[in-house]
Predict the structure.
Amino acid sequence: MKALIADGHEVVAIAPKDEYSKLLMKMGCRFFPLEVQNTGSNPIKDLSLYFEYLKIYRKIQPDIVLQYTIKPNIYGTLAAKRLSLPVINNVSGLGTVFLNNGLVSLIAKLLYKVAFRRTDLVFFQNEDDRKEFLSNIKISNLNTDLLPGSGIDLDKFQPQPQLNGKKFTFLMISRIIKDKGIYEFVNAAKLAQKNNLEAKFQLLGEPDINHRRGIQKKEITQWIDEGIIEYLGVTDSVSEVIKEADCVVLPSYREGTPKTLLEGAAMGKPLIATNVAGCRQVVLEGENGFLCDVKDENSLFDAVNKMYNSDKNELERMGKKGRQFMEEKYNEKLVIDKYKYWINKLSKK
């Protein structure tokens, strides 16, 4: 958005109104508030989104529409195409729709198919996601491309020296829902205590108690009271938290391109993540970190134990490799340039 504004484009942001809305306007965007229930899954109720998008798009008459996440990708596309507007969608991860079976997932896939038949371009964030999406949702001649996630600001996230603290700190940054591997992280912390590792396990992120797979605050409080984890709440200064960690961990069940791993690697921190789509594209086994099996606390603990017992030179080597990998493959300039290319190609003007 900043890059498009700098190039002289008018950028209109459409999102639920929250504490960040003013920052968007301060950045130079026009802002339109939109009521979206991020955790709802009632297609009949969500259909009202279609009419909201239609009203806003009709009012602002954009030259191109850029959309992210499942509900804007579906209902925003249907509205934009009703007005013959070009659309670029970003599938930032397949998530719960593809992790679980059931009526909700079936309906979501059907809606994807209806909407995406008319979109001009769909960005995926890794090849595994693109292949699985296209094998599950058959759409002939769908125009797709790959992005390295949303990239990483290499100037903001600078390499940090290895720490020499007494306790080795494992940091997980995530929305607090089951599919991110929260339970596996907590259980690996319990195993670390049982095996007398002098280590801290920190969790940074917001509880999503309204999510179908959200973890309740009382359970988090119990883990804190038992001394299993340190809960850090939420922050706008993620880099300051990563700086104080020895290793960044994400035992997620599936990702697009996980931003927290990119940030950790850019700051020269070794990584631990599950061997699943999205994560395995960022974590190179034995080079910038370790991979573990999904939904397997014992495999995660093995990776934790291996990282804990790595000497300083090995940790520094992995950190340097991670930074180098970010510079080569995940610089946010790559994302911006690709967006600019497609916007120029597809927009009405």
Q: What stands out?
A: The mean pLDDT is 90. Residues 43-60 form the longest helix (18 residues). The CA atoms of residues 133 and 233 lie 34 Å apart.
